[in-house]
Amino acid sequence: SDTVERHEFGAEVGRLLDLVVHALYSDREIFLRELVANAADAMDRRRFEALTDQASALPPDAKVRIVPDKTARTLTLSDAGIGMTKAELAQNLGTIARSGTRAFSQSLGDAKAEDRPSLIGQFGVGFYSAFMVADRVTVTSRRAGSDEAWTWASDGQGAYTLEPATRAEPGTDIVLHLKEDAGEYLEGYRLDHVVRKWADHITVPIALVEDGKEETANQGTALWRKSKSEITPEQYTEFYRHVGMNFDEPWATLHWRAEGALEFSALLFVPGMKPFQAVENERASKVRLHVRRMFITDEAELLPPWLRFVQGVVDTEDLPLNVSREMLQATPVLTKIRRAVTGRVLTELTNRAKDAEGYTPFWENFGPVLKEGIYEDHERRGEIAPLLRFHSSAQDGWTSLPDYVSRMKDGQEAIYYLVADDADALKTSPQLEGFRARGIEVLLLSDHVDAFWPEALGRFDDKPLRSITQGSIDLAKFAGEADAGEAPASVDALVAALKTALAADVSEVRATDRLVESAVVLSASSGGPDLQMQRLLRRAGR
Ligand code: ADP
C-alpha cells in the first residue's frame, strides 16, 4: 500500500545480522533472554518517566506476555513498556554504528565459543538475535504519551518497512515468524524453561500465555534481599552474570545489609575479567538503584567513577518509590549511601590486597581505573594509595608503596618514579643509570593515568614522591659501583659551550651523577611539569 515505507539497512546492520545469526547459532535460545530483557527495561523506563509525566503511568497489572501460536507458527512478546516512536523504531532497530560492528566482530573472533552469547548483550545488539529463530519479525509499538502506533517489519535480509498501525495502549508487540527448525519455541515447557533459566531475576512479571491461560514464568526474587545463608554460590554467580552480562566468576562478591540510621541492601561484584567494552569508554558507575525491590535507575552514580568496574544492586528503604530524577540528584540519602558503599568496597579491596597472588588479577584488570581515585578523591586518597601496585627497577612482579618505603636506603628521602608510555622503554631508560648503580629503587609507571596521580598524591608515609626526570637529584651521597664524584674541570668548559649552543632550547645545562653509561640525558626543571607530562601537553597542542 501507499503508506508502507521501505528502508535499506545500513551496510553494517546486514553484516551484524549475519554475525549474530551465525556465531551464536548453538546458543540461539538466548534470543528470548534478549527480548524479555528489552521488554522489562522498557517497562522500567516507563515507570520512571511516569514519575514526572503522568501520561506515562503504567497500568497496575503490567506484564511481559509471551504468547506462542502453533497454528500461525508465531511467537509474540508483548510489553506495556515505554514503546517507540516511528523515528525510534528506525533508529533503534535499523541502524548501528560502524565502530560498534567492528568492535563486536573483533570480540567475537577473540572470544571462546561459550563466551559469545554474553557479547550481544554487552554490545547492545540483542534485538537482532530474533533472526536466529525467525525469518520474519514485526514490531508494533506505541510510545507512551502518544496516540500513534507504527509497525516495523523485516526478514533480516537488507531492508525493513515502516507503516502506520493501531495499538490500544502504549507498549510493544514483537511477533516472530518462526523458522522451520525453530518449532521448539512454540512449546510451553520449552519457553518456561528458558525464561526460568535466563530471566528469573527480572522483577517485572513475565507471563506465559497458553490456550488463553496465563502463568507467571519468573520468580522475580530479589536475591539481594535474602540472607547470605539462603543463597548458594551458584545463585550468586548466576545473578552476577545476569546483572553485568558477564560469563566468568566474580573476583569479589560483597553482600550486606545496612541497618540503623540508613537502611539498604547491597549486592556488589568485582568482575573476574575486564569487560569487552573497555571501562575507559564509560565514566559513570552503572550500579543499579532499587527502592523496595523496584528498579529505579542505573544512573544514580552510587559509586565514584574510579570504582566504576564494580557491578550490582543497591536497594534502599529510605527513598520514596516515586523518587524523581531531581530528587535523586539532591537527596542526602544517596550521598550517605554512596559514602557507605564506597567505604565498604575499599575495605574489601584492602583485605584482598593482603593476598598478593589473589590481588594480582584484580590489579591487572582494574588498577589503572583505581589510580584515578588518587587525583579525583582527596578524601579517599590515603586509603587508595596502599592499594596501588607498581613495577620497579629493583623487583620483578608487582610492588606497593609500603613495600618500597621498607626498602628505602639510609638517607633516601624521596620515593622515586619514572613515567613513560611504554613499559619496556622504561626498563632501559638512561634516566635510571645512576639510580641502578647506587641500588636505589625507582618505580616504573606506564599507564596513561601515571602522568597525573603522583603529583596529586604528593607524599606517601611522609616521603615526597619525585619524578627522576625533574630537577637535580643529589645521588652523590649514596655510594655506588660507579661513583661519578666531582665533575672534573674539563667538563665545566663543555657545559659552558653546551649552554651557549643550546641557549634557545634548554634553561640549564649541568654535570650530573645520574648517568653511568650514557653521555647526556634530558631533565625537566624542578618547578615545572615532569617529562611525561610535557609530552602529554605537547600532544594536546599546549
Ligand atoms: P540494547 O537493548 O542492548 O540497547 P537491542 O538491540 O536489544 O540493544 O535494542 C536496541 C534498542 O531498541 C534498545 O536500546 C531500546 O531503546 C529499543 N528497544 C528494543 N526493544 C524494545 C521494547 N520492547 N520496547 C521499547 N524499546 C525497545
TrEMBL record:
Functional note: Molecular chaperone. Has ATPase activity.
Protein name: Chaperone protein HtpG
Any Pfam family hit: HATPase_c_3
Binding-site positions, ATP: 34, 38, 79, 84, 92, 99-100, 122-127, 172, 325
Main location: cytoplasm
Molecular function, one GO term: unfolded protein binding
Keywords from the named record: ATP-binding, Chaperone, Cytoplasm, Nucleotide-binding, Stress response
Cellular localization per UniProt: Cytoplasm
Recorded family membership: Belongs to the heat shock protein 90 family.
Organism in which the protein naturally occurs: Methylobacterium gossipiicola
Subunit-structure text: Homodimer.
Gene Ontology CC annotation, any one: cytoplasm
